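A reminder from the course coordinator: this example appears on the midterm review sheet, so study it carefully.

Given structure:
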């Protein structure tokens, strides 16, 4: 029997004040897979990530991690349930050092069955962060900041990683490095939702693809099938 999804959304609607942004979103992230969430600017991708992470009031719908319903939980409890957000813009404490940023992100009690990451393991994954351990986060390059944002998320011992535009503003060589890191995380057993503007990057990594437009799912399928029909995807994303 197939295992239950790592994360599932059914009938999720979300609002900013009176603006209805997400409409009846349904998706399933299989265990140990990467799901690319694509869409034009303003389609609702970040709103969807924030809704999963508990950062928005939700009016309806169910969000579950494995069998656990997290729909009504606080952001802290959703994090304890094993969901970590790597936010767009890589929010971090700019006036703390790299190592201090990692230390404050560590949680005392990881989710049941999850082993916490140690700072040494983060440095194994990102040797560059070890070299820069005493530097202030605000002094790092864009690529290093992305590594630190991922490292901070890993310190919470997640099962599911939500990555919101991790390649934004990065040079092509660093984009390739981020791709290799995401593959390593999947190999380590994490399940990942990857929000991306960079379609080729996302399709190269993803197992599944979901496209949203004006807050509604308009396309979904295996990445391999969509790679074979790029023109259809480009149409959905308004790329000509
Ligand atoms: N804090 C807010 N208050 C009101 N409306 C908002 C707020 N944040 C986003 N929106 C609106 O919600 C819609 C979805 O925005 P969202 O940021 O989720 O899109 P996105 O797909 O992530 O876009 P981008 O690729 O530009 O980051 C847009 O119409 C946006 O104007």
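Designed residues:
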């Amino acid at each position: 029997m197939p295992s239950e999804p790592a994360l599932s959304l059914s009938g999720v609607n979300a609002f900013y004040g009176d603006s209805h942004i997400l409409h009846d979103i349904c998706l399933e992230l299989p265990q140990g897979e990467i799901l690319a969430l694509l869409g034009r600017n303003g389609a609702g991708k970040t709103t969807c990530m924030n809704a999963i992470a508990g950062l928005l009031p939700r009016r309806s719908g169910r969000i579950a991690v494995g069998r656990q319903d997290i729909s009504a939980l606080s952001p802290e409890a959703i994090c304890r349930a094993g969901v970590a957000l790597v936010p767009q813009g890589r929010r971090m404490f700019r006036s703390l050092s790299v190592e201090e940023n990692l230390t404050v992100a560590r949680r005392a009690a990881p989710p049941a069955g999850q082993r916490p990451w140690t700072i040494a393991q983060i440095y194994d994954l990102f040797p560059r962060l070890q070299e820069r351990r005493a530097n202030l986060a605000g002094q790092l390059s864009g690529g290093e900041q992305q590594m630190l944002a991922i490292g901070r998320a890993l310190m919470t011992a997640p099962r599911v990683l939500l990555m919101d535009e991790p390649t934004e503003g990065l040079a092509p060589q660093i984009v390739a490095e981020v791709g290799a890191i995401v593959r390593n995380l999947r190999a380590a057993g994490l399940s990942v939702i990857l929000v991306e503007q960079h379609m080729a990057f996302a399709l190269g990594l993803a197992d599944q693809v979901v496209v949203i437009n004006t807050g509604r799912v308009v396309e979904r399928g295996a990445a391999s099938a969509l790679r074979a029909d790029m023109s259809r995807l480009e149409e959905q994303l308004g790329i000509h």
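Residues 16, 19, 21, 39, 41-47, 197 surround adenosine-5'-triphosphate (CB under 6 Å). The chain has a mean pLDDT of 90.
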